[in-house]
Design goal:
four-stranded antiparallel sheet, 49% strand, 196 residues
């Protein structure tokens, strides 16, 4: 959402065909008052994913997959204006960014380190911290101190939800039953809302 809660940024597949193929994912925005939708990224940026508007309201941080070499896609996190303009690479070999509620940090999948979840400051200062050795679909607690993440359980063919602190000292706490596909931390930091 925009800081004024008037615009929602989304990642959207586009150009569906009758054979169920499509051209890619593009970032777009909904004007919540009118319901009007428009794409922000161009068709040249075919695989733009996971949009996050930073607290300045002027910077959109998102994942990008360069598929110019189809057999070797290159993942990165980029930033750009939320309206239009070129991308600037923030972090190579990374993807799936999710920005903290206060906008100061973001968690991401670090493909350079085996897909581990890592944490960095949005302003580029400081060092990168590992949050979890595995996991995905991070949802921040309202206070920005914890993450709910899904963790694959391959032997049982399901996923679990773990809660991890952004300063990982203790082992993750498993909070949901098997076969969970996504999770979001509710408005209270002591509750977890789970969808199946």
């Amino acid at each position: 959402f925009s800081p004024d809660k008037k615009v929602l940024w989304v990642c959207r597949r586009y150009d569906f065909q009758t054979d169920n193929t499509f051209s890619g994912w593009r970032i777009g925005k909904f004007d919540l008052a009118s319901g009007a939708f428009s794409f922000v990224t161009s068709e040249d940026d075919r695989f733009a994913l996971h949009p996050n508007l930073l607290s300045d309201g002027k910077t959109l941080l998102h994942g990008y997959i360069d598929v110019s070499v189809p057999t070797k896609p290159a993942y990165s996190i980029v930033k750009r204006s939320p309206e239009t303009g070129p991308m600037t690479e923030v972090r190579p070999k990374a993807g799936r960014p999710s920005v903290s509620p206060d906008g100061s940090k973001y968690v991401f999948t670090d493909y350079a380190n085996g897909g581990r979840l890592a944490l960095a400051n949005t302003d580029g200062s400081g060092s990168v911290t590992e949050v979890a050795t595995q996991g995905g679909d991070p949802a921040w607690s309202p206070d920005g101190k914890k993450l709910a993440i899904t963790v694959d359980d391959k032997p049982n063919n399901c996923q679990h939800v773990d809660i991890v602190g952004i300063d990982p000292v203790a082992a993750p706490v498993r909070t949901a039953p098997p076969r969970v596909t996504s999770a979001a931390i509710a408005d209270r930091s002591d509750l977890v809302r789970v969808t199946r």
